[in-house]
TrEMBL record:
<dbReference type="GO" id="GO:0070043">
    <property type="term" value="F:rRNA (guanine-N7-)-methyltransferase activity"/>
</dbReference>
<feature type="binding site">
    <location>
        <begin position="122"/>
        <end position="123"/>
    </location>
    <ligand>
        <name>S-adenosyl-L-methionine</name>
    </ligand>
</feature>
<keyword id="KW-0949">S-adenosyl-L-methionine</keyword>
<keyword id="KW-0698">rRNA processing</keyword>
<dbReference type="InterPro" id="IPR003682">
    <property type="entry name" value="rRNA_ssu_MeTfrase_G"/>
</dbReference>
<comment type="function">
    <text>Specifically methylates the N7 position of a guanine in 16S rRNA.</text>
</comment>
<keyword id="KW-0808">Transferase</keyword>
<keyword id="KW-0963">Cytoplasm</keyword>
<protein>
    <recommendedName>
        <fullName>Ribosomal RNA small subunit methyltransferase G</fullName>
        <ecNumber>2.1.1.-</ecNumber>
    </recommendedName>
</protein>
<feature type="binding site">
    <location>
        <position position="76"/>
    </location>
    <ligand>
        <name>S-adenosyl-L-methionine</name>
    </ligand>
</feature>
<feature type="binding site">
    <location>
        <position position="136"/>
    </location>
    <ligand>
        <name>S-adenosyl-L-methionine</name>
    </ligand>
</feature>
<comment type="similarity">
    <text>Belongs to the methyltransferase superfamily. RNA methyltransferase RsmG family.</text>
</comment>
<dbReference type="Pfam" id="PF02527">
    <property type="entry name" value="GidB"/>
</dbReference>
<dbReference type="InterPro" id="IPR029063">
    <property type="entry name" value="SAM-dependent_MTases_sf"/>
</dbReference>
<dbReference type="GO" id="GO:0005829">
    <property type="term" value="C:cytosol"/>
</dbReference>
<feature type="binding site">
    <location>
        <position position="71"/>
    </location>
    <ligand>
        <name>S-adenosyl-L-methionine</name>
    </ligand>
</feature>
<keyword id="KW-0489">Methyltransferase</keyword>
Length: 209
């Protein structure tokens, strides 16, 4: 938890309570339905919460905007972002029902009113458009972009806000993956944002619509 406040201040008491409640909620749910490895649970705040918040450090989501978390798994990056941005609406989607069950329980336990969930493959979502798609560790950029493109709102001409797009967290050597994707993402190194060793060779990619 100290890791979060090391990099971010200005949280309300409610947000601080929500961040600190994550550990107990995930410990509890993970013992019933395993969604986070035991090893990763020991560094929940670094490997999951802070990593997710790299998106909040690099992008400012406007109040009222809508974000879909593609392949949220146990709720990352969607849940930490929903705590960070209480005025932004987050839709968390995963193709595995038991993971969505955990996400629902965690969102309810935290009292998050800005989170909705859906148990489905992203390709089946046809009825909604979003300002941003966020995603961590789900699929090659080529697929993420193919799935995200039809879900993104049209960029507003001359808008002073960030253009809608795909924001994803990825690790390792991305040269081939980016070349095969056919798109030209802006690439940021997470280690430039958070100076923990874990974030070396972890990247944040942004593909505007
Ligand atoms: C490695 S896990 C990552 C989970 C989470 N994003 C995280 O970083 O902890 C990948 C998740 O993506 C989901 N997934 C993969 N392809 C998907 C698709 N086309 N639509 C919805 N979910 C998908 C899987 O069910 C799985 O839960």
């Amino acid at each position: 938890m100290a890791l979060i406040t090391k990099y971010f201040s200005d949280f309300t008491d409610v947000q601080l309570q929500q961040f600190s409640a994550l550990e107990e909620l995930y410990n509890d749910w993970n013992s019933k339905i395993n969604v986070i490895s035991r090893k990763d649970m020991e560094s929940l705040y670094e490997k999951h919460v802070l990593h997710s918040l790299a998106i909040a450090a690099a992008f400012e989501f406007k109040a009222g905007s809508t974000i879909v978390d593609l392949g949220t798994g146990g709720g990352f990056p969607g849940i930490p972002l929903a705590i960070f941005y209480p005025e932004v609406k987050f839709h968390l989607i995963d193709s595995i029902g038991k993971k969505i069950k955990v996400v629902d329980a965690v969102a309810e336990g935290l009292g998050l009113k800005n989170v909705s969930t859906r148990h489905s493959r992203i390709e089946e979502v046809k009825d909604k458009k979003f300002d941003f798609v966020v995603s961590r560790a789900v699929a090659p950029l080529k697929d993420l972009w193919k799935w995200s493109k039809p879900l993104l709102k049209k960029p507003a001409p001359n808008a002073d806000t960030q253009q809608p797009g795909l924001i994803c967290l990825k690790g390792g050597d991305l040269h081939t993956e980016i070349a095969e994707s056919g798109c030209r993402p802006r690439v940021m190194e997470v280690y430039d944002i958070f100076q923990e060793e874990y974030f070396k060779e972890k990247f944040l990619l942004y593909v505007p619509a």
